[in-house]
Structures are given as structure tokens and as C-alpha cells.
Design goal:
Number of helices: 9
Distance between the termini: 44 Å
Strand content: 15-25%
Order of helices and strands: EEEEEEHEHEHHEHEEEEEHEHEHH
Helix content: 25-40%
Bound molecules: flavin mononucleotide
Number of strands: 16
Structural class: alpha/beta
């Protein structure tokens, strides 16, 4: 069965990508899964410099999901290039680097630095992290900001640029459209939903940061709807994510219009999930006598109600 898909100039062997922030810098999972067998690995969001992130508690379990407020802890781009990228390169992983900045210039500089090294396949612009005060989501919740960050990144690289959209907006399709106009090669969606949870005995938020981002199966139907809306709005490829735990979930996103998917929270529950997803996709193609997985992208059947 042919599971290969295309994201602009990127040819991936299959549509399964490890989601940023849920798979470390990839190399931590090398004993668990052959990194080269994944469609790609999106590494933890990187700033120009190292960051400690927020104090704990930073993760709590919620019904059918989790809340996190990590605050983009990370080693920074230079240490990543020195200490992690060589191993990723040797593993044969297709590496997507997720970047975050507080200014447009920072995004541009990060993009330029990463374009000059060997082993980076694409840049994912995190303009959607709900857990930091400055930058990131400020751009992602603003049409002009989204446009300008994408344009600046495109100026700085020959690599595919993939802005990652936030679901914390009223009309996500308009953000996909603006990203496309600014030259994005694809869009990825969704990042986490701004949320909170309170301990009623102490009357304190369960997260030190008070609010955090909701992920996992709880958000999946909303994420699928958003992928569907964006698919109607743009012609660049869409990378869908939000609560994927089974091959059926992958197929749901693809039928709604995603060319590829990312799997995040499910890694914390079952790091061996990839094999199960791969087998499930092959079984589906066999059962439905479809030769190429990519033929199901955006094939949602819709019975349009007759106009009254
Ligand atoms: C602990 C944690 C850390 C995350 N860190 C990042 C990050 O650094 N950059 C980013 O773009 N998204 C980050 N995300 C968002 C995920 O990549 C993904 O968009 C979101 O969790 C929805 O997918 P899921 O339900 O499969 O987890 C993080 C999510 C979690 C749970």
C-alpha cells in the first residue's frame, strides 16, 4: 500500500508526524521507534536562547485529555544544532523544526540559522502557543501578525515554511487564507485550546501558570471541524492534529482535508502508537480497495440541503 504524501516540496513516506512538544527532540524516542519510519518528526519549539519554562505543576490530566503550561522550555537553537541535530540526521528522520519568537525579527533569524545547517526539512512557525506572555500567539491571533511572520520567514529560507495555527480564534479559515497569501507552503493546525482547571478545596488553579493548553481526544471533533473549514478556504496542504489516538482518527482528519497529521498527547499514553496507526491505515486501504492513501484527502461526502 502506498502511504506516501506530499507537503509542498516535501515527500513523506507516510502522513504520520510526531507533534512538537510531545516527542522531545526526537532522539529521546529513538529506542522506542525507528525515527526514519515516521513521516516526519516536529521537534520541541525552539527560541534563539535557552528557556526554563514555567514552574510546576505544568501538566495535569483532564477528562479525555490534558492541560499543559510548559512555557516553551527548551535548549535554544544553537544547542539544538550542536547536540541534537547530528543524531537526528544520522537516524534518517525527516526533521521539522518548530520555532517561536517574541518579535518578527526573531522568527526571521531563527529561520535563517536553521536554513544554513544540514538536516532540517521544514520550518514550523509556532505562532499559536497559549502558554507564553510575549510573542507566539500574539501573532497567531492577529491576521496582520500572521501574515508578517510568514512573510519574514519566507524571506529568510528556501525551506518549506509551515505556520501552526491557533484554534483560539473565531474564524480559523481566515488565518489559513492570510498565511497562504503570505507565501506559506502549508499550514498546521491545531495547537492547544486555552483552558483551566481548579482545585475546589484549595481554590487554586491546578497549574502554576493558572491557565494552560488543552490537548488530547477531548479536542478532536473541534480540530476536525477546523481542518474541514481550512480545506475549503486554501489550496496549500494542511497538516491536521488534535487528539489522534487511532488510525480511524487519522483518516477522519484526512477525509476532512488534511494531507498529513501530527500525533501529540497520545505519545504520553502509548509511545508505541506508531505501529498501530500504520497497520490500521494499511488495513483501511485494503478493505476499501484504495491503492494510495493520498486519494482520500478531502473526500468528505456532503449532501447539500436544497435551498429553500
Ligand atoms: C506538553 C505539550 C507541549 C507542547 N509543546 C509545543 C511546542 O513546543 N510547540 C508547538 O507548536 N506545539 C506544542 N504543543 C502542541 C502540540 O504539538 C499539538 O498541537 C496539540 O497538543 C494538539 O495535538 P494532540 O491532541 O495530539 O496533543 C504541545 C503540546 C503538549 C501537550
Amino acid at each position: 500500500m502506498d502511504l506516501s504524501i506530499e507537503i509542498g516540496s516535501l515527500n513523506l513516506e507516510n502522513p504520520l508526524i510526531a507533534a512538537s512538544g510531545c516527542f522531545g527532540y526526537g532522539v529521546e524516542y529513538a529506542d522506542v521507534v525507528d525515527l526514519a519510519s515516521l513521516g516526519a518528526v516536529a521537534v520541541k519549539g525552539l527560541f534563539l536562547t535557552e528557556r526554563l519554562g514555567h514552574p510546576p505543576p505544568r501538566i495535569i490530566e483532564t477528562p479525555a485529555g490534558m492541560l499543559n503550561a510548559i512555557g516553551l522550555q527548551g535548549v535554544g537553537v544553537h544547542r539544538f544544532i550542536r547536540e541534537y541535530l547530528p543524531q537526528l540526521r544520522d537516524s534518517g528522520a525527516v526533521t521539522i523544526v518548530n520555532i517561536c519568537g517574541t518579535t518578527i525579527e526573531e522568527y526571521e533569524e531563527l529561520t535563517r540559522i536553521l536554513s544554513d545547517v544540514e538536516g532540517v526539512a521544514a520550518i514550523e512557525l509556532n505562532i499559536s502557543c497559549p502558554n507564553i506572555k510575549a510573542g507566539g500567539i500574539t501573532f497567531g491571533c492577529n491576521l496582520a501578525g500572521t501574515h508578517d511572520v510568514v512573510q519574514a520567514a519566507k524571506r529568510a529560507t528556501h525551506l518549506p515554511v509551515i505556520p501552526k495555527l491557533t484554534p483560539n480564534v473565531t474564524d480559523i479559515a481566515s488565518f489559513a487564507r492570510v498565511a497562504e497569501e503570505a507565501g506559506a507552503d502549508a499550514v498546521s493546525l491545531v495547537n492547544t485550546f486555552l483552558a483551566m482547571s481548579i482545585d475546589v478545596e484549595t481554590r487554586r488553579s491546578k497549574l502554576a501558570n493558572i491557565v494552560g493548553g488543552l490537548s488530547g481526544p477531548a479536542i478532536r471533533p473541534i480540530a476536525v471541524r477546523m481542518v474541514y473549514e481550512c480545506h475549503q478556504a486554501v489550496s496549500i496542504p494542511i497538516i491536521g492534529m488534535g487528539g489522534i489516538t487511532t488510525a480511524n482518527d487519522v483518516l477522519e482528519f484526512m477525509i476532512a482535508g488534511a494531507s498529513a497529521v501530527q500525533v501529540g498527547t497520545a505519545n504520553f499514553v502509548d509511545p508505541y502508537i506508531w505501529k498501530k496507526l500504520m497497520v490500521g491505515l494499511n488495513d483501511y486501504l485494503e478493505k476499501h480497495k484504495i491503492k494510495r492513501l493520498r486519494d482520500i484527502i478531502g473526500t468528505l461526502e456532503v449532501d447539500l440541503a436544497e435551498e429553500a
